[in-house]
């Protein structure tokens, strides 16, 4: 069995997976609440909270899986990218657990982990496919083959989730912004206000959301408080649909360019219902397989790190003691 650990940001996570990494026997996520009062993740606070919580989270992952530590055959851990202090807490713990039992250690890239969530959601899935990671921190498109992941395009400014969070804040809605905007948009007309979709005509596969944010800012400036309240569903619907349009347009374009038999969407924004509906409709028409893992596998978790470990080379005991984490 694989024990996996993820501490790259503000979630302290551990999981136990079956050998082969296609089934999680447990998946424990402790989301740190210490950052709420600061309005954003504070790196040093995150490191210290990981340190306090990680042992308990690992114990719970083992207990939930009905596993003992001596049944673990390798330890997988996120080593990049992320908050350096936060990563080091997970890596040190993983090294300790592996070293004490002379086990191999598997250093996993967080983004490869996000994509590997698709293997847990669909155990038949095999490369090649095109994957979109859309979260609060990342928005990127990859071509995934048996040889690894090639970056096809990424955001030039904000991540998609970040754009939704910032838009929601401008509209006076709660956090996280994605679900708050979807809720506000329920009875709205997405075409009442024209929101821009950037890099539309370009043949590249990059994203940009800064123009969308500016467009919302100017629309809000032109309205008084009562009008903003009345127009809220339409503004939210228009803003959400511009994000959905940008993501689906580029993903479908990449699918066409790379002749991809399957598409994968992961990251917190993959929970968006209208993005899912739009892609389901398009993929059905194209006969392309679509894999969108359930929300608990899309947001940060350790099961996805264990799944990625199955296709990542292991570092043998004791060579990993000098292995380091990297922020980028
Ligand atoms: O992957 P994730 O949980 O965390 C990090 O980025 O670290 O992604 C969080 C992002 C937030 O920006 C949030 O607004 C967005 O995912 N999100 C959604 C939905 N649920 C979460 N966006 C659109 N629709 C949703 N239902
Ligand atoms: Zn992540």
Could you characterize what this model shows?
The protein is of the alpha/beta class. Helices cover 43% and strands 18% of the residues. The protein has ten helices and ten strands. The strands form two sheets. Strands 3-2-1-4-5 form a five-stranded mixed beta sheet, with helices on both faces. Strands 8-7-6-9-10 form a five-stranded mixed beta sheet, with helices on both faces. Strand 4 (74-80), helix 2 (84-100) and strand 5 (105-109) form a beta-alpha-beta unit. 5'-O-[(R)-(carboxyoxy)(hydroxy)phosphoryl]adenosine (KG4) binds at residues 9, 135-137, 161-162, 164-165, 176-179, 182, 267-269, 271-272, 299-300.
Helicity, as a percent range: 40-55%
Q: Could you say which structural class the secondary elements and strand pairing correspond to?
A: alpha/beta
Major sheet details: 5 strands, mixed
Mean pLDDT: 96
- SS field, number of helical segments: 10
Bound molecules: 5'-O-[(R)-(carboxyoxy)(hydroxy)phosphoryl]adenosine, zinc ion
Q: For the terminal residues, how far apart are their CA atoms?
A: 29 Å
Number of strands: 10
How is the largest sheet built, in terms of strand order?
A: 3-2-1-4-5
Shape: globular
Roughly what fraction of the amino acids lie in strands?
A: 15-25%
Write the element-wise H/E pattern from the N-terminal end onward: EEEHEHEHEEEHHHHEHEHH
Instruction: Give the low-confidence spans.
Output: none
How many whole angstroms does the radius of gyration measure? 20 Å
